[in-house]
Specification:
- By secondary structure, the protein is of the alpha/beta class.
- It has one domain: Spore Coat Polysaccharide Biosynthesis Protein SpsA, Chain A.
- Helix content is about 30%, strand content about 20%.
- The radius of gyration is 15 Å and the shape is globular.
- It starts with a strand and ends with a helix.
């Protein structure tokens, strides 16, 4: 079983409005990611922090919500909050920022199949297109401790980069793995591509 983790605790300061509630193809970012991950991952955990009271009512009931008590510490702290709530029977976890809403459900399913059939020494499964890596990242349960013990000033990528030799890259035909909507201009470009 692979749990899904959506990191949605950020302040969205550059966007000026909660990114989790932005619209993409008729769904909110957070709603779409709950659906897309939920087709493969159980459970789907949504980490909220800033703007939690505005976002919580819009999170689909299928998701499990956890609150990052100190979201100002950054995205790693949100991942750590979710990992503390990881079910005991989860073999791994897929994680993605809420500002990456365009990934396709087929991509998540393809990554999960690769994870299920990976060599036992492989710790990460990461999507790739044209040589570029993207989201979501699937990690083995055994690396949760590595993320949980990182200091507040660290970044999750440090654990990923330290295990490059234990990572499987899965080639996908999905530019949505690169989506990163940080500001109004990036959101405008996303909406233009969605037409």
């Amino acid at each position: 079983m692979i749990a899904g983790i959506i990191l949605a605790a950020g302040a969205s300061s550059r966007m000026g409005t909660p990114k989790a509630l932005l619209d993409y193809r008729g769904e909110t970012f957070v709603g779409r990611l709950v659906r897309v991950l939920g087709e493969t991952c159980k459970p789907v955990i949504v980490v909220l922090g800033y703007n939690a009271e505005a976002i919580r009512p819009r999170v689909p009931e299928a998701a499990h919500i956890v609150i990052n008590p100190d979201p100002g510490r950054g995205q790693l702290s949100s991942l750590q909050t979710a990992l503390a709530a990881l079910p005991d029977d989860a073999d791994g976890f897929a994680f993605i920022p809420v500002d990456s809403p365009a990934v396709e459900a087929d991509t998540v399913a393809k990554l999960a199949r690769a994870f299920d059939h990976r060599d036992p020494s492989t710790l990460f499964v990461i999507p790739r297109q044209a040589g570029r890596r993207g989201h979501p990242v699937i990690a083995a349960r055994s690396v949760a401790a590595g993320f949980l013990t990182l200091p507040p000033t660290a970044e999750a990528r440090e654990v990923v980069h330290a295990n490059v030799d234990r990572t499987e890259y899965v080639d996908v035909d999905d530019s949505g793995i690169f989506t990163d909507v940080d500001d109004p201009e990036a959101y405008r470009r996303l909406k233009e591509r969605a037409v």
